[in-house]
Fold:
Amino acid sequence: MRARPAPPSPARRRVVTACAGALAAAAWRVRAQPRAAPLPRIGVLNFGPSPAPGDPPDPIVRYLAQQNYVAGSSVVLETRYAEGDRAAYVRLGRELLQQTPDVLFLPGSDIGGLLAELAPTIPVVFAISDDPVAGGVVPSLSRPGGRVTGVTHMSPELAPKRLQILREAVPGLARVAVLHDPDHPALYYRDLEIAARAAGVTLVSTPYRSIGDFPAAFEAARHARAQAMFVEPDRATLAYAKRVAGLAIERRMPAISAYDAFVRGDGLLSYGATANEILGRAAAQIDKILHGTPPGDLPVEQPVRFALVVNRRAADAMGLALPRTLVLRADEVIS
Structure:
């Protein structure tokens, strides 16, 4: 007959009981510990090209980081690139919506209006160059309501100043080409026309409807004997600023735009709002929305500071000697 095992000693019973209690307490703590909240998700639809290896990240990424949203650690960024093709908006917009973002960032009023229809429940923040009220994106700048708000850097009222800067850069200026998209609902052309009439300058319309039309538009400006050009800021000329600037240098066509992205893409001159202000404000609005503020309660913001930026490299490349007074007056000189 097998001998019955001896009962555990009181000391051993105390050890076993203590271990079991510790394990139970640890298990309870694991069950009681709240799950980590999912990272916020931001969708971004860009009109321009996707970055090549080694290119810097999209500018909005830098400004979101200033609001403590770092891709991969504190936020998930879903980005799509239209590669200059308007027809891709709807498809890419639907792709973004399938990712269920908490907010969409859209650099373009037409994109904003489109996705406002596609996304009946998702907040939209835009950064645009034209009038979002005239374009039907929001009913009011101060009270946008609904799910859409953003920042506009429209500044057609600065047309006389931009024309004056061009006249300083090109003495004897009499004919100015305007590179513009006829389907872009902005007021730049109208206001520049008024300013040109007052200054005795003739405007030459050089329209385009796709980025492939840029060379033909410059050729039309040359045939019309234009001595300089105003590059109307819109989704294409901003996203493809380097391509436009390259054509201006190649054709020896001094050009000015309303946005410093043009000069940073090797354009000659810009006078207007800066990316620092526009994108910084848009990132701050995204932060407020992610913290619970309804987008309709956030007024559409406008720039409060305008900067003259001069690219001396571009001037040298086209053999243009800029007046010293103009260079000294610039808020920033790229050389």
User: Anything to note?
Assistant: The domain at 41-153+275-297 is CATH 3.40.50.2300 (Rossmann fold).
